[in-house]
Automatic annotation (TrEMBL), chain A:
SUPFAM superfamilies: Periplasmic binding protein-like II. Transmembrane segments: none annotated. This is Lactose/L-arabinose transport system substrate-binding protein. PANTHER family: ARABINOSE-BINDING PROTEIN-RELATED (PTHR43649), SUGAR BINDING SECRETED PROTEIN (PTHR43649:SF32). InterPro entries: Bact_solute-bd_prot1 (IPR050490), SBP (IPR006059).
Automatic annotation (TrEMBL), chain B:
The keyword Disulfide bond does not apply. Belongs to the binding-protein-dependent transport system permease family. GO terms for cellular component: plasma membrane. The keyword Oxidoreductase does not apply. InterPro entries: ABC_transporter_permease, MetI-like, MetI-like_sf. The lineage of its organism: Bacteria, Bacillati, Bacillota, Clostridia, Lachnospirales. This is Carbohydrate ABC transporter membrane protein 1, CUT1 family (TC 3.A.1.1.-). It comes from the Bacteria.
Length: 432, 288
């Protein structure tokens, strides 16, 4: 009998707990007052941190202002945006949401009601880098305030390079042939791979392509994969590096980050936001140096600069207090050097708002990188990066290329795999 | 009087009926309607059967279908046989620590699908536990990247599934075994039947309804497989281990979404599950 009473009480307590749990969360959204904005972003140490600092900056003039920042992973955000808009349930949307640049075109065209056109919100658009602004502009209308930039960086462990008899200068302004040469030598002498990459991802190929101004689309927006000599060259470089142990291919993102934080690979080539992860390995402080990425060999338009990722703040259709949201973004991310001066050294968020790049903070030496003023360098890389249109069907093309690479690694020929990739993307685009 | 009784019956049924209609029936009908429409995102229009025809022209969908068939053909029989053998071993009243073994084998079912998939991924990683042990024991010379080979990636999914679901099916068999009179086994023993003979002549035939049920449930589960493909292999390498549900998810939420097309793919899975269940029930029918 006693047992029964106890179990009934436990069940009762759980039920009450669940109900009150649901109740309180509902209360929160209905209690939304006029000075609170809800924000979705995905990285505690990066964009959420930046948003919190922006809140502090804005609160100086608007003491009642408050942000409710909800950490929402990029994958979850895609699922949620799709279902919310698909169901027409707009009031579940946040007021402001962070958006990957490569997905902007897709969301604006497939969900025309999702984001507000903020062309006339008082932001001086000419103060943003043009290439960056292109991502969030559709038909001449601006749908977002650009945030961080994904300028491509290459950084290497100087202590390992030294063991093999190289310095960071040997890896600066080189092409991939030279990179492979050095990489083989480093691997033979020290046992370290120079670079790691996540399997089932074609990001590195995209970065190589963009560094020479190449994309995966023809001028009239058709996929340009089959028989594309540039892509073929990139995949050949990729395969050569992999076979020579210069490139270490791992299965997942966490393994990828672990390759350099745990000191198993001697270098990283990726968008500059990766620096936040690189710098988590505090025991490696002072052992890293930063430079530009290798260029494509034998290509006339080749440069040592590229881009990976980057994100932009958007105001959703759900935002009832558009004026407040617009004013907030315009006076922080598009109007406060103070904000960028705070977030840069802590999170490495390279501003795309040009007035911020004149700040002195950029020239401060960074201890982690042996006293190099890396942010000034990255800002310089960003200004030289060729601009490439990633297209509405970027995700499909990226996945198709990743599949092609996986199959080439398994022994298929590049030409036939690129042809299959072309067919896959054409199939995906043919939605009638 | 009778009318009143009926009314009371319906009143008890009503909450369940309302919930099923609202959360199961309505979405299904709505999805069926969507499956006849096509277009990207919210810009959709009616298009008849074109989505269903499109499915069979989609190489990746066909690949995911083949993958699911592979999992089904290999994993379900192996798992059910292991579960049956384990259940009859653990049903022996003379076995010591029966409770402990039963709990231990059932325990994987209590783990979250995502958590166990991620644990399997790290177990089989290039620098993971399995590679480390194999290297230490000298079985292999250098770490093998299990998840980068199409065949080994699929086999790892199957191993993971067997680990996760064998105990679950075993519990059904154990319950079924309770309904078989112990005297039947005693009689067989007196007649001089061996352990194998009792297993194939008594246990298996008397458990037939339970075996049928677990086979249908496992078939259904395998065709709708999602978490393992999503979290363990990410469908990779390439699309070598992707399942149908995972592909539907990718098409709905990763790329440019076409919910009409993805709904149509879901209904194709439904039709396949229905056909397979029907076949299994016919095969298992005892009245022939």
């Amino acid at each position: 009998m006693k047992k029964r009473i106890v179990s009934v009480l436990v069940v009762a307590a759980m039920t009450v707990g669940m109900l009150s749990g649901c109740g309180s969360s509902e209360k929160k959204s209905s209690e939304k007052d006029e000075n609170t904005l809800t924000v979705w972003a995905w990285d505690q140490s990066f964009n959420i941190y930046a948003m919190k600092e922006a809140e502090k900056v804005y609160q100086k003039d608007h003491p009642d202002f408050k942000l409710n920042i909800v950490e929402t992973g990029w994958d979850d955000m895609q699922t949620q945006l799709g279902t919310i808009v698909g169901a027409g349930n707009y009031d579940k949307l946040p007021d402001i949401c962070l958006m990957q640049d490569f997905a902007y075109q897709k969301y604006v065209t497939t969900y025309p009601d999702l984001y507000q056109d903020i062309t006339d919100c008082g932001v001086d658009w000419s103060e943003f880098a043009e290439g960056k602004l292109a991502a969030s502009t559709v038909d001449g209308k601006h749908y977002g305030v650009p945030f961080d930039n994904g300028a491509e960086i290459a950084c290497y462990r100087t202590d390992i390079l030294k063991q093999a008899g190289y310095t960071i200068d040997d890896l600066t302004d080189i092409d991939w042939n030279r990179f492979i040469e050095i990489g083989k030598d480093v691997y033979d002498k020290t046992g370290y791979s120079l670079l790691s990459v996540q399997a089932d991802s074609s990001d590195l190929i995209y970065q190589m392509l963009q560094s020479a101004g190449f994309g995966t689309w023809t001028e009239d927006g058709k996929p340009d994969l089959a028989g594309n000599e540039n892509i073929k060259q990139c995949i050949e470089i990729y395969e050569e590096m992999k076979d020579a142990n210069v490139l270490n291919v791992v299965n997942s993102w966490d393994e990828y980050v672990a390759t350099f934080t745990s000191g198993k690979t001697a270098g990283v080539i990726n968008g500059c936001w990766i620096l936040a992860s690189v710098q988590t390995a505090e025991d490696q402080s002072g052992k890293w140096a930063l430079t530009d990425m290798p260029a494509l060999p034998g290509v006339s338009s080749a440069t040592n600069y590229s881009n990976q990722g980057g994100s932009t703040w958007a105001i959703t259709q759900n935002c009832k207090n558009t004026e407040l949201a617009e004013d907030f973004l315009a006076s922080t991310f598009a109007g406060s050097t103070e904000l960028y001066d705070t977030i840069l050294p802590k999170s490495g968020a390279i501003a795309t708002w040009l007035p911020a790049s004149e700040s002195d903070v950029y020239n401060e030496p960074q201890e982690f990188f042996g006293g190099q003023a890396i942010y000034a360098q990255i800002a310089d890389f960003a200004s030289k990066t060729p601009s490439v249109d990633l297209g509405v069907y970027y995700t499909e093309a990226n996945k198709a290329l990743a599949t092609a690479i996986a199959n080439v690694s398994g022994g298929s020929s590049i030409d036939s795999e690129l042809k299959t990739a072309q067919e896959t993307v054409e199939f995906n685009m043919n939605q009638q | 009087m009778k009318g009143k009784q009926n009314a009371t019956g319906w009143a008890f049924l009503l909450p369940a009926i309302i919930l099923i209609c609202a959360f199961s029936l309505y979405p299904m009908i709505s999805a069926l309607i969507t499956s006849f429409q096509t277009g990207t995102g919210v810009n959709i229009k009616f298009a008849g059967l074109s989505n269903y025809i499109r499915c069979f022209k989609d190489d990746v969908f066909i690949q995911s279908l083949k993958n699911c068939a592979f999992y089904l053909i290999i994993q379900v029989p192996v798992m059910l046989i292991i579960a049956l053998v384990l259940a009859s071993i653990l049903n022996n009243p003379k076995l010591k620590f029966r409770g402990f073994f039963r709990t231990a084998i059932f325990l994987p079912c209590a783990t979250s699908l995502v958590a166990y998939a991620i644990i399997f991924r790290s177990l089989f990683a290039t620098d993971g536990f399995i590679n480390m042990i194999a290297l230490k024991l000298g079985i292999i010379n250098h770490a093998y990247n299990f998840l980068s080979n199409p065949t080994s990636a699929k086999i790892i999914i199957i191993i993971a599934l067997i680990w996760r679901w064998t105990g679950y099916n075993m519990v059904f068999y154990l319950a079924g075994l309770q309904n078989i009179e112990y005297s039947v086994y005693e009689a067989a023993k007196i007649d001089g039947a061996s352990a194998f003979q009792t297993f194939f002549k008594i246990t298996v035939p008397l458990l037939k309804p339970t075996i049928l049920m677990t086979a249908i449930m496992s078939t259904n589960g395998t065709l709708q497989l999602f978490d393992e493909s999503m979290n363990l292999t990410k469908g990779g390498p390439g699309n070598a281990s992707i399942t149908m549900s995972h592909y539907i998810y990718n098409m709905s939420f990763k790329g440019v979404p076409n919910f009409g097309y993805t709904s149509a793919m879901s209904f194709i899975i439904l039709i396949m599950v229905a056909i397979l269940a029907f076949v299994q029930m016919k095969v298992g029918d005892e009245r022939d």
